[in-house]
Amino acid sequence: MRALILLGLVGFVAQLVDGSLGMAYGVTSTTLLLAVGTNAAAASATVHLAEIGTTLASGISHWRFGNIDWKVVARIGVPGGIGAFAGATFLSNLSTEVAAPVMSIILLSLGVYILIRFTAFGLPRGNLGKPLRRRFLGPLGLVAGFVDATGGGGWGPVGTPAILASGRLAPRKVIGSIDASEFIVAIAASVGFFIGIGSENINFSWVAVLLIGGVIAAPIAAWLVRHIPPRILGSAVGGLIILTNVRTLLRSDWIDAPGNVQTVAYITIAVLWAAALAYSVREYRRHKAEETVEAIETDLRKSEEETTSA
User: Fold this and answer.
1) How many CA atoms within 13 Å lie on the side-chain side of 246?
2) Any stretches that span the bilayer, and where are they (predicted)?
């Protein structure tokens, strides 16, 4: 019962993060399942089955708040589904001994990317309004879908920053569109896993609990995306993913690091993580202060112009 409650909380928090940041539900949930010893393919299959429900709920919530560009959903979702099916088939044919470290490496790489991306750069906002072309979204969806299925997560970490980096779509619409299109990816990956490993290796009670937690969080996240600082959240999630997957790799048969080496690694990561969070908070406050000053200066200029014209 304690494990199910923990999974429910993980599903809630993961969807809260995913729905407000556009990434990390799969990465966070799969990381936990691997940490408790779940088979790599089964962990990814469990998360993707739960995501069918959570992405549907998240998509509906984002649609109600006007956070979705349906052209982007169509152009990236279908290639994403193809990539996810291929990735699920690939992962299903790997041995457990190989699959677990491989998945941890993918998750670790995504965690590093998330941490650096949001700590150092925040969210780009240039080029708003310019169209996102099919020749960009199609290959992006294919790669993101494949990484998502093989890594148990990756649709958001690959897709969201790539579209944000283009600066052509408002951040809230990027997040809403990525979350909505992930519904297609989750279905395609689940079909691939059912064909590859069957249903006997999937714990459906875990699927249900992850799903319940995610569905509860989905509407809250869709509202929070308008208010929460993505830079700080990205730094927090990236550090957590890095710490957890380094732990998995250091304890794997590939490395089997001594206890003192593990301790030094954890402390080093924790210090760097704290520094990244502190930097993100400082930069967020600095940018907010600059925006406030600019708004005041704009209001003063308008007042002076109105006074002069009068």
Assistant:
1) 18
2) 72-92, 98-116, 180-198, 204-225, 232-250, 262-281
- For the chain, the average pLDDT equals 78
Confidence of residue 161 (pLDDT cuts 50, 70, 90): low
In whole angstroms, give the CA distance from residue 269 to residue 227: 29
138: exposed, middle or buried (Cβ count in 10 Å: 0-12, 13-18, 19+) = middle
For 173-206, what is each residue's pLDDT tens digit?
Answer: 887 888 888 889 889 988 888 887 777 667 777 7
Please state, in angstroms and rounded to a whole number, the distance separating the CA atoms of residues 231 and 280.
6
Sign of CA dihedral 303, 128, 221, 109: negative
- Return the sign of the alpha-carbon dihedral for residues 229, 230, 234, 240: positive
List the domain range (segments joined by +) for residue 205: 2-309
* String of DSSP letters for 245-270: HHHHHHTSTTT---HHHHHHHHHHHH
Q: Stretch 223-248: mean pLDDT, rounded?
A: 74
Q: How far apart are CA 246 and CA 260, in angstroms?
A: 14
**How many structural domains comprise the chain?**
1
Distance CA 279, CA 296 (A): 26
Mean pLDDT across 118-131: 64
What is the full DSSP assignment across 129-152?
TPPPPHHHHHHHHHHHHHHHHHHT
| pLDDT score of 215 | 76
